[in-house]
Design brief:
alpha/beta; Growth Hormone, Chain: A; Rossmann fold; 4 domains; 8-stranded mixed beta sheet; 4-stranded antiparallel beta sheet; globular; disordered C terminus
Amino acid sequence: MTDKVASVTSGLGSASSEKQIGAADFAAGTCFFLSGFLALTYEICWIRTASLVFGAANLALSTVLAVFFAGLALGSFIFGRYSPRTNRPLRIYAVMEICVGLLAMLTPIAFSAIDVIYEQFYPNIQHNFAMLSLMRFVLVVAILLPPTVLMGGTLPLFCRQYVRRQRGISSAVGLLYGLNTLGAAIGCGVCGFLLIRYVGVNTTIFIAAAVNIAVGVIAWMLPLAAEPVMGDSRALDSDGGVSSTAKAGSRKTVCIYMLFWAVGFVALGNEVLWARYLTLLLYNSVYTYTLTLTVVLIGIVLGSMWAGGYFDFSHRRALLFGLIQVGNGLIVLTVLMLPAAFWHTFALVPFWIVVLVMLVPAVLSGVSFPLAIRMVVDHPALAGVGVGKMAALNTFGGIFGALLAGFVAIPLWGLHVSVMATTGISLLVGFTAWLLLDHSSGLPWRVGLIALCIAAWLGVPNLMGTQLPADFLSGQGELVDYREGLSCHMAVLRRDGRLDLEIDRMWQGQDEKYHQIMAAHIPMLLHQAPQRVLVIGLGVGQTAGRFLFHDINGLDCAEIESGLVPLVREHFESDWMDDPRVRFIFEDGRNFITHTDQMYDLISIEVGQVFRPGIAGFYTHEFYRRARQRLNPGGVISQFVPITFFDLDEFRTVIATFLDVFPHGVLWYNTAEMLLIGTASDELSLNADRLIEISRNDRLRKDLEFAYWGGPAHYLNRPEALAAGFLMGSNSLARMVQGAAIYHDDRPHLEYTTSVNRKTRSLPEIVALVRNHLDPIPAILDASADSTLTVASESIRQYNLKDIVASSILEPVPNLLSNGEQEQAIRALRRAIGVNPKNFSALLLLGQALASEDKPRWQEAASCFERALEINPNVANLHNQLGRIFMIRSSPDKGIQHFRRALEINPDHIEAQRNLQKALGSTRIDDLGQ
């Protein structure tokens, strides 16, 4: 280790090995560290800003990343070629840093300008994939290419300054690369976790730009010069400074370059696969990208700084290079093929899951860079040239790898085959290095090692028996079908006899009617005569399809994931998709609203899981202003307010932001996913004609034979139950949120706060706040209300609010029951019933839990079932359960009566059929239903 430190010191020292690093060198190193810090800060801020202009679609974001890395690659190559011609590289670096700061300072204005340009072209080219992609690419190049080219030149220039000894090339390059990458890792974490949340995107860019300029000024003042190049620098440059390994023939030189291009291809291709794989283990949030990128960068730092010094003294570099690539491929394959049970057993926190998946391959990537540089560079003065070429090749390979993995491999072949492909390429790179570049060991030994590695590569998947991603998607249910889309995993699962849709393991809908149908019916009833409707977010289509129950001319559905439509067609109610009034738009919903020229009478935003990346962007002031521009006069906008994700201040901020753009609004009960409905023109009201429409429209009336928590007495086709959903109008909403902050794109703190703790954090407080500001029921009606209806509605409304809290208590019950924690589940059920005694689901679950104990409490279970029957007597399974209890308690007549009633409701109820057959032949059946 002492020798390694000595080599690094001599590599970064002057021509004399005795000279130590001075204060000026330390200042230069600090500047170089800050260059990495600022580069990642810009990258994260620019990605976020670009997503607001072009949308969060993968292709738009990939365009930004491709241009960013392409700029770095070009800068590395250009300034690497130039580096031998200057003896004052830090002066060049200083000018570059000042220019980067000035250019970065202009990017917020530039993005605003291209937003205007993009909006002019978007309506005419939105359906032309090639033209839309070209337009995005050209606009991003215009903004990001100049500063990123300058950023890319920093490493070659520092190598020209500090790589001074032939026996210190690898160690010096490794240390410089690691120092810059360490700054990038810290910059990624600080920006992604802190600055954007607390300072804001544009302010972060301005601060970073000011620091950039200061770094440039400091670097300019440093009294440092590089060692002069001995001989003609142009002659050395034409030779490329290649090592003896490559000088043996141009084919070997080309081989090394191609292999390092492939290393970049595999590295960024694997990062795409890792990101997709991690969605099988973690819930994606605003923290996920920052966490994964930080871990990768830290791994690169560890690898480059730890191993760089060893390669200056090794004569078996090709062998080591091949071992690293083969090891990388086998390690990635092994980790990604670990069984789902492994991860479930350890139940690791997100940080450690990311570390286990990504750290070792990142370390090996960090080791590869100084080793590859040492394979092509022998002359220290030309280290900048070698670094420039190799970094450019590696980066361009990475761009192709990321694009191919994300847009070709995963959609066409799936995650499993893609992992096999990238790890196979990694092995192929290593085998090529052994066969064509390594002559330190015999050919039979190399061939034998290759055969062993191929056997391991083929054997790991068979040994593990893992199928990606299917083994991870099943969760607590039976996996029926799945799709691997451009940006997510979509799965259909069967649970308790129903089908559920999940996207990245998060519930999106089911095949049974539930509260999301009201997200269509309520705004349609509040609008006087809607004709054109836009729905953002498809889910299982329950909301979108319900708009067609009303008299409209057109329904546009904006859905970012095109693969969702065929999945919904196959497994969920989808006849509505064939209606000629329906048009699907496969586009980021915010981007579509921002740039389209289409106008609508009603816009329904069906995205509610605010912690997911990009979703909070549908709650900002800027988004609402754009949506208002897309509404016809008198147009209405409707949006979920999922209060389980908010604390009290966040809830008030969301509503205050909405009201600032749509001053005439109402808050409507729809379970804990309340509906916020607004217009910029007149106050909303529920007129008598719209209520009459429910009774006249058989299809609509039948669809509203549905209750949130009760039975037929609370069906929403009853006027009093429907009107009970009204909570408050504009004036009361304004009073409730007086003084609340307005939520803006520039400081997206909502994404962060809802990601930390998403479960029912402030439900009782939010419900109490709403209850204190309720408007009288007649306030929503455009005529004097019947007093009987008003009294009935008020009673139901109070139960509605109680049920929000009761449902939050019920949420963990299914997991408790499945884990055998019966007593905890029963206690939770009793608490929920105490809050809302009319919650049908709680009574049914409590009866089932009491009846399934080791020592069943039959009488109490029967009491729960009977109370549930009073609420809803039309549930077959409830009659079957109660009939079984009567049979066990020696009341066969009552038991047979309930079995027969169950079969009247559902003739296909197999268990009730079997129980009735047994009951007709016995007076007491202890094993009934078993």
